[in-house]
Amino acid sequence: MAQYEMNLRDYWLIVRRRRWTIIGSMVLAMLFSFWLAKQKVPTYQATAAVKFEQSTSLSGLLVEVLSYSTSDSIETQASLIKSYPILEEVARRLNRLPQSARGEALRESRAYTAALDGIGGKIRTQRVPSTSILEIIATSTNAKEARELANTVAEVYRDYSKTNRNARITEARKFIEEQLKEVEGRVKRAEEEVWAFRDANRVISPGAESTVLLKKFPRAHPVPTNAVAMAIGAALLFFASVVAGETRVLPDGVRVASAYVYLVLVGSVTMFTLFLFVLNRWSASAVSYQAVLSPIVTILVASQLVGEGITWQFVVGAAIVLFAVYVGAVKPPKPTLSPRTAEAPQSGESATGARGP
After folding, report:
1. For 289-305, what is each residue's pLDDT tens digit?
2. Domain span at 216
């Protein structure tokens, strides 16, 4: 069978004969592409960031410990943002729920559920890695709606978190105040019992009496006396800790170890040795004045170490205390005449009396 080879003229004749079919197909393809492009709606995303921050000050940490809640983790906060209480307030601020309608009747309606589910489906949360920042991402086909939705969710979460934390802090404060009142009552009762015991047993002051007892002991070198006292005290405290089941650990860190060494060597051993040294040379009443000098030294040291301010009230009070200590402990007493010396006649009077008539 003979084969016929087509040339360009033959192709042109075919195109010319089928021209309307080809043109119609091209037009239909263009119209379909335009319709398909119109059906694909663009989506917009808006992102708002919130920081979940915990207290770093000592008072804030104490309140947070007392008001601890399991909802404080970052993951829980991320889930809380999409909870119904947050979404309900967001819907109200965006005017998707009536402002006046509240209660169980509203929450049981389909419009309520549909509005909240619609908002919840458009937002998602994610945590910025290695930070305490949460990103709220809103998606919508309307750029303005996405921006308003992300900002409103962030504002509602901030207000809700602030209100919730303030409520927990208020509860913790009430608890602390109640405990303070209870402790004050206990301290007051204990003071009354101590005063009653002191009155019944004619006890003046335990600290002053211990100073007097040490003064009456045979004079000994302060260092051996301090070593014996510290050894006995350490043994008793160790035995008490074993009985109480306390854990005994070594100081951890340079600052803790240095503070421990200071308390042991300077605050305990050195101070008690100096106390015994002074007690061997002064009277017990004069040594007891160290109790009123300690606060002055403490405030002066604190002003240099931690920058505490020194007020004029402190200066005036310290001057009064120092003057009182000088009068009571340092100033030598005035010599007094004994009754026999005061009644003895002077030498001139004796001579005059001898020269009688």
Report:
1. 777 777 888 888 888 87
2. 203-329
User: Do 119 and 242 fall into the same domain?
Assistant: no
Whether the full predicted model's pTM is greater than 0.70, yes or no, is no
Residue 344 lies in a domain: no
Q: Which residues neighbour 151 within 8 Å (Cβ) at sequence distance 6 or greater? A: 46, 48
**Residues 14 and 118 placed together within one structural domain of the fold:** no
The burial class, CB within 10 Å (0-12 / 13-18 / 19+), for 78 is middle
**Contact of 156 with 90, CB cutoff 8 Å:** yes
Whether 197 is in a domain gets the answer: no
Last residue within a domain, chosen from 176, 192, 214: 176
pLDDT at 350: 41
Q: Output the CA angle 241-247-251, nearest 5 degrees.
A: 105
On whether both 160 and 124 belong to a single domain, the answer is yes
Residue 112: inside a domain, yes or no? yes
Which residue has tokens 């205390």?
A: 321
Cα–Cα distance for residue pair 23/29, rounded to 1 Å? 10
Q: Where are the alpha helices (DSSP H) in 202-289?
A: 206-216, 222-244, 254-261, 271-279, 284-287
d(CA 159, CA 169): 15
Burial class (CB within 10 angstroms; exposed 0-12, middle 13-18, buried 19+) of 157: buried
Tens of pLDDT, residues 164-196: 888 888 888 888 888 889 999 999 898 888 878
| Residue corresponding to tokens 């601020």 | 93
Tell me the residue length of the chain. 357
Residues 213 and 309 reside in one and the same domain: yes
Q: What is the total count of domains within the chain?
A: 3
Identify which of 293, 289, 313 has the alpha carbon closest to the alpha carbon of residue 301: 293
Q: Is residue 231 part of a domain?
A: yes
Residues 175 and 184: beta-carbon distance below 8 Å = no
Question: How far from chain centre, in Å, is Cα 9?
Answer: 93
